[in-house]
Amino acid sequence: MLYAGITEDLELPKSENAPVRSISREGNLAWLAGIIDGEGNLHYPVQTKPSGVNKVPNDYFCPKLRITNTDVRMIRKISEIYVEENLTFFYALNSVKRYKNRKDTWKNQMEITLGSQQGIKKLLQLVLPYLVNKRVMAELLIETIEWVQEQPWRGRMSRQGVNYTLKPEFRALIDEMKKEREFHIEPSTITRKAREVLSW
Question: Which of 172, 179, 169 shows the shortest CA–CA distance to 136?
Answer without folding.
Answer: 179
